[in-house]
Amino acid sequence: MSRIAYVNGRYVPHREAAVHVEDRGYQFADAVYEVVHVHDGRFVDEEPHLDRLERSLREIRIPMPMPRAALQRVLREVVRRNRIAEGIVYFQISRGVARRDHAFPTRPVPPALVVTAKRLKPFPTRIEGWKATAITHPDQRWARCDIKTVGLLPNVLARQAAVERGATEAIMIAPDGTVTEGASTTVWIVDAEGRLRTRDLGGNILPGCTRQVLMGLMREEGIAFLEGPFTEAELRSAREAFITSASSFVKPILAIDGVLVGDGTPGPVTRRLFEIFARHVGGMRNVPRAA
Fold first, then answer.
1. Is residue 126 assigned to a domain?
2. For residue 161, what is the domain's CATH number?
3. Domain tally, the chain
4. Position 177 in a domain
5. What is the pLDDT, as a whole number, of residue 120?
6. Is 148 a catalytic residue?
């Protein structure tokens, strides 16, 4: 069965899907995107992703191409046509097609919407085998990383550096020596004192939806955590480290730059959070809201 994509009002074979050469997403990265995990045919944490999509669009002054309910119908139709039981649905909205000029089009143009979907391996049921390593890498991104823009060249270069060194993820280090996030993930540590920590929100990191949901689940379970900067040195001395994202879920980091984290196995905090999030995905009850 050939894959199906949605492009500006039409469902088309994936191999024929195309946008105009003067689409501003193509020429300027003047676009935002989201990725939602599909598990057992259900959308995981869909509402936080749509909330973040709308926020990103507001920040760069692009209107929604259609009401949220209509967009949800399109997403489900793409998943249905591709017969996705386990996978992801990707959706991207650009400012639209206009004569190439850095400033916004003087005459409003319709936003452009593209939706694709693909299969992934099933959600992991056990943490054994669900593990990763990481490298550290300078954070060379722009100052508004809180907007989920398609302008991901620094992230691409960081991830490629990780791949070339046999690692799964690149953990980015800001010029002041603090950890920001991974190339496409939120970074967490259990520090040398046993405190669970992740970076606080600001323009320099993406407000991860899995991060938000996991925090809500931890509050329900009475698990304490800290939001705030931590240094590269604290990362290297951590007892545990893990990453979160829509496709990483809760994934242990067992080594950084070739040096084991702790004893090189998933630690007790990471194990517990993996189990909590796995139950959430399996049960898909109401999504906890971040405070």
1. no
2. 3.20.10.10
3. 2
4. yes
5. 94
6. yes
* Mean pLDDT, 10 residues at a time, the chain of 291 residues: 91 96 98 97 97 98 98 98 97 98 95 97 91 97 97 98 98 98 98 98 96 98 98 98 97 98 98 97 59 35
pLDDT at position 284, please? 58
Rounded CA-CA distance 219/195 in Å is 15
User: Residues 274, 138: one domain?
Assistant: yes
Asked if 91 and 183 sit in the same domain, the reply is no
The arrangement of strands across the sheet holding 31-39 comes to: 10-13, 4-7, 112-119, 87-94, 31-39, 42-43
- The predicted pLDDT at position 289 comes to 42
* Beta strand segments in 26-122, E: 31-39, 42-43, 87-94, 112-119
Helix axes 268-283, 209-221, angle to 10 degrees: 100
Per-residue pLDDT at 2: 76
Name the active-site residue from 118, 121, 131, 148. Answer: 148
The domain boundary residue, chosen from 74, 92, 119: 119
Which amino acid is residue 215, in one-letter code?
A: M
What is the distance in angstroms between the CA of the first residue and the CA of the last residue of the chain? 44
Say what the pLDDT of residue 1 is: 58
Please give the residue range of the domain that contains residue 103.
4-119
Beta-strand pair 226-227/196-198: parallel
Q: Are 92 and 13 in contact (CB under 8 A)?
A: no
